Amino acid sequence: MIISRQKDLAVLFEGLSSDDAFFVVGCGKCAEKLRVGGQREVEEISHRLVERGLRVVGSRVISTACSINSWEETVSEMPEIDDATVLLVMACGNGVSMISKASQMKTLPVLDTTSIGGVCHGYIIHEQCAACAECNTHLYHGLCPTAQCPKGLQNGPCGGSIDGTCEIGIERSCVWSQIYEEAEKCGSLKVFTKLHPPKDHSKKVRREGILEKI
Ligand code: SF4
Ligand code: SF4
Q1: Does this model's pTM top 0.85?
Q2: How many whole angstroms separate alpha carbon 83 and alpha carbon 79?
């Protein structure tokens, strides 16, 4: 799941022109689950735009913003999109880019994308994965220091942790404390004695370019 949050709407609205006609797009996957771009939020932002005297020609929560099929289906079912001059997209950056490419229209993001995470037992889990292209969570009892340690440390904690919290903020757990707890439960602290080589950061960038035929 891609984690995102709404931008400061007051600031976003300031940049909108009354010469434009808006179509609001939500995403029925991550953004809806996170309650930042589902039906309720799409209706709310549409309502606020109208309150400000701006013209809203329509809105839709599409099935999956990052899938071109969802967009094509929406276009075929909602001819009023042709009357819009600006799409306001309540989806992650991936969804916004996909809709921008597919529609060839002016597209504005309503959300800021912050990390890859998930929703579990009533909590949003932020920063579970940093898409490093070299997954090694099995070495760390299912946790990921690449994504969850602000320093990305692969070989133990930095020494700044106090009572299991990260030195950058007491609200934040030190992932290495969590790794220690998990290791203790398993009865093996091997993760602290074995040297883990650094990540090959070149794997993160596709030299072959960003397009790949499927
Ligand atoms: S090791 Fe890399 S791919 Fe695996 S969860 Fe962490 S950042 Fe993501
Ligand atoms: S306190 Fe823990 S999580 Fe925070 S920077 Fe240090 S090792 Fe990383």
Answers
A1: yes
A2: 8
